[in-house]
Inverse folding.
């Protein structure tokens, strides 16, 4: 039961991000050039701190305060929200650790993305089995996943609405 709870909460919460990232990866060369190095935590912090990662439906907010993370999504009419925190590692990983809740289920999940850099280009892949794709080009453009990181918090209010709606049932 616990794994199905995690799968439902995670699947509904992050599926849109994974679909978008997978589609983007399909259009990119999936091999990182030689000489790639992990993106340092301080640089990852600059990229994600106080940003909203917009997904096809929903998004995730990376707050500076206590590195809190809040997200929401909706898949096949099932609304979900997640709350937790985000972590950075010296190996170039960004991890989102959250408890995802729907009307029916609740489960904790850890999702990580690794970032490598060659010059000004940053590559990203979902750990452990994702494919590499260009996350941020040396000259960023609208097709980069990086362009989906915005300053505005478009997540917290909707996540609270979903939480309130779920709690009322």
């Amino acid at each position: 039961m616990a794994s199905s709870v995690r799968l439902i909460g995670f699947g509904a919460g992050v599926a849109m991000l994974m679909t978008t990232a997978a589609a983007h990866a399909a259009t990119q060369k999936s091999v990182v050039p030689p000489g790639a190095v992990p993106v340092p935590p301080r640089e990852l912090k600059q990229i994600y701190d106080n940003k909203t990662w917009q997904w096809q439906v929903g998004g995730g907010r990376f707050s500076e305060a206590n590195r809190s993370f809040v997200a929401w999504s909706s898949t096949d009419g099932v609304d979900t929200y997640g709350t937790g925190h985000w972590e950075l590692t010296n190996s170039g990983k960004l991890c989102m650790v959250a408890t995802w809740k729907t009307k029916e289920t609740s489960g904790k999940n850890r999702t990580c993305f690794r970032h490598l850099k060659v010059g000004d280009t940053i590559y990203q892949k979902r750990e452990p089995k994702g494919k590499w794709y260009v996350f941020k080009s040396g000259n960023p453009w609208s097709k980069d996943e990086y362009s989906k990181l915005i300053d505005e918090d478009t997540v917290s209010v909707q996540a609270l609405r979903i939480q309130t709606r779920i709690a009322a049932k």
In short: The longest strand covers residues 106-118. Residues 115 and 124 are 5 Å apart (CA to CA).
